[in-house]
Amino acid sequence: MTITRMTRRTLLSGAALLAMLTGPAVAQMPMPTISLGGEQKRKLTPEEQEKQDELDKAYKSATNKIPDQKANDPWATVRPAPATPAPKKKPQ
Known about the structure:
By secondary structure, this protein is an all-alpha fold. 49% of the residues lie in helices and 0% in strands.
């Protein structure tokens, strides 16, 4: 009976070691892609194309109305002011 327990323990520890070593390898493999037919685009009808063009124009005009934002520096109050170099003394 002791041989079977020892064999089971060896097999179980070997399987656990193998599972721990193959885990990172499986995580590095690329995910399989599933296609649901989304790549095939149908041609738009003239009405749909016109509506899409109107939406694009409205989007562009709305984004052009947004004013330019100045750069935000959250560390401006923490950072010391840049030191100016001391003026050079004139030789006498």
